[in-house]
Amino acid sequence: MAEADITDIKSIGVLGAGQMGAGIAQVFSLAGYDVKLTDISEETLAESLKTIEHHMKRQVTKGRVNPDDVSSALTRIETGTSYSLFGDCDVVIEAATENEELKREIFKELCPALKADAILCSNTSSISITRLASVTDRPAKFMGMHFMNPVPVMQLVELIRGIATEESTFDTIRTLTQALGKTTASAEDFPAFIVNRVLLPMINEAVYTLYEGVGSVDAIDTAMRLGANHPMGPLELADFIGLDTCLAIMSVLYEGLADTKYRPCPLLVKYVEAGWVGQKAGRGFYDYSGDTPVPTR
């Protein structure tokens, strides 16, 4: 299949300056694209820029990025709190919290600010692309572009068509993704797509294993690291992803597929209700208040 022509794509919009949005902005700016990054506050954007610069410098020390490229990449990132910043963007990628109602409201407000031929993508890790596209003014130019975390390190990007996505839209985003040096995997528009359809039930089962007293946090993670050769234990990985995100994805699977095997573990629900959502909160299945994470159970 011939590659799409992406020479006309110059400017990329990223909506959401959290961990995922910052990573997406970083890889596009280093690849030579002008990036427009928005969030709800200037403070969040300032912190995001500091994070991006810090991660770029880490890549320099590891020999992955030329030092001269860092300063030029940073100058290509423009920030602001208004969607009007996206007016000249060729592609806009939404990277807001994994909440369908929030995303739908964002798209309703966002679309009037975009030029007619701009492609709109969602970085959702589980939500129906077809449903999200239905609230936009451009379902044919809408698709899923699911980056993995951390974006600068992880090689894969899942690409998901909605029922109305035009083939030319898919081809353009696939070619653009490959131009970043990423590998693409095409997934159908089913709940949680490929990666999280497989990964999150495993994490949920690990939480059930803890909940039922089969093993401790340390025992479960050690068993899976050494017994299944996983680089991280499933509970450690859940903390890294964010337990709130894990619960949101499991809820999408449970509601979308109507199968009890996807029922979120009550312990996962309880931790999220307590605000113990992992590394970003300082506590999840591990306590991160000290120099070394300590299992909490």
Structure explained in plain terms:
With 297 residues, the protein is an alpha/beta fold. It is 44% helix and 14% strand. The protein is built from eleven helices and ten strands. The protein has helices at residues 19-30, 42-61, 67-75, 100-110, 129-133, 167-179, 195-211, 217-227, 234-241, 243-257, 266-274; strands at 11-15, 34-38, 77-80, 91-94, 119-122, 142-147, 156-161, 183-187, 286-287, 294-295. The strands form two sheets. The protein has an eight-stranded mixed β-sheet with strand order 3-2-1-4-5-6-7-8. Strands 9-10 form a two-stranded antiparallel ribbon. β4, α4 (100-110) and β5 form a beta-alpha-beta unit. It starts with 10 loop residues before the first strand and ends with a strand. The mean pLDDT is 96.
Calculate the mean pLDDT score and round it.
Answer: 96
The Cα radius of gyration reads 19 Å
Strand content: 5-15%
Q: How many DSSP H or I helices?
A: 11
Shape: globular
Order of helices and strands: EHEHHEEHEHEEHEHHHHHEE
Question: Sheet with the most strands?
Answer: 8 strands, mixed
Oligomeric composition of the shown chains? single chain
Cα distance spanning the termini: 52 Å
Structural class by secondary-structure content:
alpha/beta
Low-confidence stretches at least 5 residues in length (pLDDT < 50)? none
Q: Helicity range of the residues?
A: 40-55%
Number of strands: 10
Largest sheet, spatial ordering of strands: 3-2-1-4-5-6-7-8
